[in-house]
Design brief:
Layout lengths: L1 H7 L8 H22 L11 H12 L5 H10 L4 H23 L6 H10 L1 H4 E2 L2 E10 L8 H15 L4 H8 L10 E6 L5 H7 L11 E2 L3 E11 L2 E2 L2 H34 L1
Antiparallel strand pairs: 1-6, 2-3, 2-5, 4-5
Helix pairs in contact: 1-2, 5-11, 6-11
Length: 269
Amino acid sequence: MKFAVQDFKKNSNNLTEDEYSQVFQNANEEMLLHQVILNSEEACCVVIPESIFQKTLQAVISEYPSDEIFYEMLDANQLTYTDYVTALHNDLRVETVLGKIASSVQTVTPSEMMRYYKSHYTSFNRPEQRNASLIQIFSSSDTGFDPAFSIISDIHERLCQHPQDFALEAKHHSECDTGKDGGKLGTLTAGELCQKLNTILFSLDKGEISQVVESANAYHILKCNTIFPAMNILFEEATLQILPRLLKKKQLNACRLWLQKIVRGKEQD
């Protein structure tokens, strides 16, 4: 039931044959793993207090509009209430065992944090960035009157009156490939656009729309959606972010190694 809802947002009796096969395989693998964990020495003394179990069960039931719908869901997935309670209890025991294994890792050394800081330097130090959108009309004349300029001028005039329509104007009129996505250029660092457009973009305020900008073969209108200021975080400050990340990673690795150990031991038996 859990995997049917989690993977396909369906009751198990509504799955296709291929979906049911995948769900069955995932559930079977989890069940076998749970059996190994619950038969381990670490699990022998794990007891889930009734108060905690009831609180967890009620939290699950409360996710449904009513108790009746919860029981209907059990029926639809061919589960009895007793089956579900047993499975939930086992899940809580498994979580408790893995929590005990994870809690055996309590420290991260300064050298480990420094290595992480250096290998993820750009995550903590980056130049100013701009999230931008663009409307582009290609030039249609090398000399004299250019109809393309008239078209983009009309677009700009409409945007001055209704700036919220930028994405709509881009979809309908922009000749850039980004037009179909409302003109979204994404988040840019200085230098990723040509020099002229780059200068204009990085002079705009958040939400501001540029004047019509002419380049070698097109006319452009830029919009600055968001400004991400330059970020320079020193190692000492970055440790506040690094410590929980590395600790969680080490704890997950401790669980993985422990599981590998008990699975190998089970295979040898």
